[in-house]
Write a structure and sequence with these properties.
Blueprint (H helix, E strand, L loop, with lengths): L1 H57 L26 E8 L12 E9 L10 E6 L8 E4 L2 E7 L2 E8 L3 E6 L2 H4 L2 E14 L6 E7 L2 E7 L21 E9 L2 E10 L10 E6 L4 E3 L5 E4 L5 E2 H7 L4 E5 L2 E6 L1 H4 L4 E9 L6 E11 L5 E11 L4 E7 L4 E7 L6 E2 L4 E6 L5 E5 L5 E4 L5 E9 L14 E5 L6 E6 L175 H27 L1
Parallel strand pairs: 23-30
Antiparallel strand pairs: 1-2, 2-8, 3-7, 3-9, 4-8, 5-6, 6-7, 8-22, 9-10, 11-12, 12-19, 13-18, 13-20, 14-19, 15-16, 15-19, 17-18, 20-21, 23-24, 23-27, 25-26, 25-28, 28-29
Length: 676
């Protein structure tokens, strides 16, 4: 039992010891982590800084084009510092209304500096603009990336994609640089999908640019309405375009635009310039503006024609059986691989023959400007000395080139000379730490060198701090005009004084404002130099012309023809009343009826006597006699009635009616007479 108790106590003590060791080890790691965290990124960067400066200073023979790549910046230290942008400009071709057209290219330039505070590792400046959409105009930028370097030291990067850009800075910007300033530039295209005018927006820090873009007009090209003309027309165009994250030159070839009828195949040979790479997948054809087809579909649809690609050359044959009377358009993309080339010139040569015409050769050539993209950065590095020489003007300080300085290391006595460049600056890198004396020893002739001659400027260069900039001013010499003796000049003769105090010529005429007088309108100048009205007509002698005879004067002073007739006022005369005009142009009264043949007079014939028949009916009253009139008309021929010789047809009809009424009255009277 005693041994079992001791074993239990021993096990308990071993367990407690293990726990204490574990706690001690865990606590030590915790303290070490706290110490590391308390150092922070600044202390860690200081260690890196000392190491980098030492290697840079010691290697005084290192080439200046070597780039120092720092470690990646800590994400925790990243800041967006677009407020450090100092300027932003947009350049491009606009129309008279200040608007860009579809596909217009613009150049965007800007600058930045550290005037608003130091730039730290991980800081970045963002560039943003309107991107592809269906409503408003947008920008598509050419892609690119370049390093920001200063005397071989990698300070940061400038990156641009189709949809945005960014300037980033690494550790070296705060380890090496002070007085940071830089520039950037890139190209972009403006597009819109709308038929309405609109604005594309560009935002870089505090700067906002609105770019007006014209809407896309509705297409009026109707392939079915195309006509044929036996005239050849073709051309070639090219333009730089950003697409799919790369930069391209888009080439466009148009053949037989007027759809002429062919007598032979169209042949061509297209040579793509160096610095570009042809992408066979980006070759597209349009026939009569129909739907686009790729190379494989073209070869399948038009087997008698051929397209051959050999590196950077295109050889094509378009059969007259397949393309007579048809318009041909093909387009291809070439990737830009040489960003240092200023431009690219593409040459295309070929031949064609239209029906009824001879074979004709043609050559199309197009030059496309290469895209521009870049950025730079300047500032002061440790061990660096800059001297800036200038002279004052009304427009501010102007750089002064051609001024020579002697620079002496005070500690070693070593001296060297340097002359300001076109920008008025002398830059010396990797100088030994210490004090230096600077003396100006020569300047251009038109500079007043005497004012600075003998002056000494002292500057100190430190190993672990940014370098120094020394700004020195010069004055221009005062120009002296040689003296000329005018003592005997007759222009100095004194003219006796005349008193014009009461001269009316001194009267002040009140000022009249003619600023809006139409007489001040400027009439555009017309060139009459070739006007026949300026022709000189030869002189003719009319001295003996009888037309010059003087006719004796006749006195007409008492001529009654000179009598003045009193004036009569007709202002209120009704005869002056203006009768409103009535439009009778459509009046049916103006209708012309065809003329009838003239009516011929006929002989009058006596009428046949009228017969009165009395019908006695039962139960009838004496006045209920029925009278039947027999033929009352004149005796007629077979064609027309015979009218009186002295009357018209109307008068004859009236006469017949009158005679008929007279006969009726006569019959009635006779009947009554018989009854009575």
């Amino acid at each position: 039992m005693k041994h079992q108790g001791l074993g239990t106590v021993r096990g308990l003590l071993l367990w407690l010891g293990a726990v204490m060791v574990t706690l001690t080890l865990w606590g030590g790691q915790r303290v070490q982590a706290d110490v590391v965290d308390s150092m922070g990124p600044t202390s860690m960067l200081s260690t890196s800084t000392n190491h980098t400066v030492a290697s840079t200073t010691a290697d005084s023979t290192a080439p200046t084009n070597e780039v120092t790549h720092p470690p990646a910046a800590s994400p925790a230290s990243e800041r967006e510092i677009s407020g450090h942008i100092a300027s932003l400009t947009v350049q491009g071709n606009k129309d008279a209304n200040g608007m860009y057209s579809q596909g217009a290219e613009v150049k965007i330039e800007g600058s930045f500096n550290d005037a608003k505070g130091p730039i730290h590792s991980g800081d970045h400046i963002d560039l943003a603009w309107s991107t592809d959409n269906e409503v408003t105009p947008y920008l598509v930028a050419f892609s690119g990336q370049t390093a920001l370097t200063h005397h071989g030291v990698h300070i940061g990067d400038f990156t641009v994609t189709e949809t945005g850009g960014q300037l980033t800075f690494n550790d070296n910007v705060e380890q090496f640089m002070s007085g940071v300033q830089g520039t950037f530039f890139f190209n972009a295209k403006l597009y819109t999908r709308s038929q309405q005018d609109g604005m594309a927006k560009l935002v870089v820090g505090p700067y906002v640019e609105f770019l007006a873009v014209k809407g896309v007009p509705q297409s009026s090209d109707n392939p079915g309405a195309l006509t044929h003309d036996q005239t050849w027309y073709g051309n070639k165009n090219g333009r730089a375009v950003p697409w799919n994250g790369k930069n391209w030159v888009d080439w466009d070839v148009r053949l037989n635009e007027y759809r002429a009828y062919l007598a032979a195949p169209i042949k061509l040979h297209d040579v793509i310039p160096a610095g570009l790479r042809l992408d066979p997948e980006r070759l597209t054809f349009w026939i009569d503006n129909d739907e686009p087809i790729n190379l494989a579909a073209f070869q399948a649809r038009y087997p008698h024609s051929s397209i051959q690609l050999n590196g950077n050359t295109i050889t094509a044959v378009f059969s007259q059986d397949e393309f007579s009377g048809r318009r041909i358009t093909f387009r291809y993309k070439t990737e830009i691989q040489d960003l240092n080339a200023l431009n690219f010139t593409n040459s295309l040569a070929g031949a064609y023959q239209l029906q009824g015409q001879e074979v004709q050769n043609f050559t199309y050539q197009k030059t496309v400007q290469n895209i521009s993209f870049g950025a730079d950065i300047t500032g002061m590095l440790p061990g660096e000395l800059k001297i800036f020489k200038y002279y004052p003007t009304d427009k501010g300080p102007q750089a002064l080139a051609g001024v020579t300085f002697r620079i002496k290391n005070v500690a070693t006595g070593e001296t060297f000379e340097a002359t300001t460049e076109q920008n008025g600056i002398i830059t010396r890198q990797r100088m030994l730490p210490g004090k230096y004396e600077v003396r100006e020893i020569s300047a251009p002739d038109w500079i007043d060198f005497a004012k600075v001659q003998g002056q000494v400027w002292t500057v100190e260069v430190l190993e672990d701090q940014p370098g120094q900039t020394l700004m020195i001013k010069n004055e221009k010499k005062r120009t002296s005009i040689p003296w000329t003796d005018y003592s005997n000049n007759p222009a100095k003769t004194v003219i006796p004084w005349t008193d014009y105090s009461n001269n009316p010529a001194k009267t002040v005429i009140p000022w009249t404002d003619y600023s809006n007088n139409p007489a001040k309108t400027v009439i555009p100048w017309t060139d009459y130099s070739n006007n026949p009205a300026k022709t000189v007509i030869p002189w003719t002698d009319y001295s003996n012309n009888p037309a010059k005879t003087v006719i004796p004067w006749t006195d007409y002073s008492n001529n009654p023809a000179k009598t003045v007739i009193p004036w009569t006022d007709y202002s209120n005369n009704v005869a002056k009343t203006v009768i409103p005009w009535t439009d009778y142009s459509n009046n049916v009264a103006k209708t012309v009826k065809p003329a009838l043949p003239a009516e011929q007079p006929t002989k009058w014939l006596p009428l046949a006597p009228a017969t009165v028949i009395t019908m006695n009916q039962p139960n009838s009253t004496p006045h209920a006699t029925s009278i039947t009139i027999t033929d009352q008309t004149p005796v007629r021929d077979t064609n027309q009635a015979q009218l009186p010789q002295t009357g018209t047809a109307s008068e004859s009809i009236l006469l017949e009616i009158g005679l008929a009424l007279l006969s009726i009255c006569f019959g009635v009277s006779r009947t009554r007479w018989k009854q009575s």
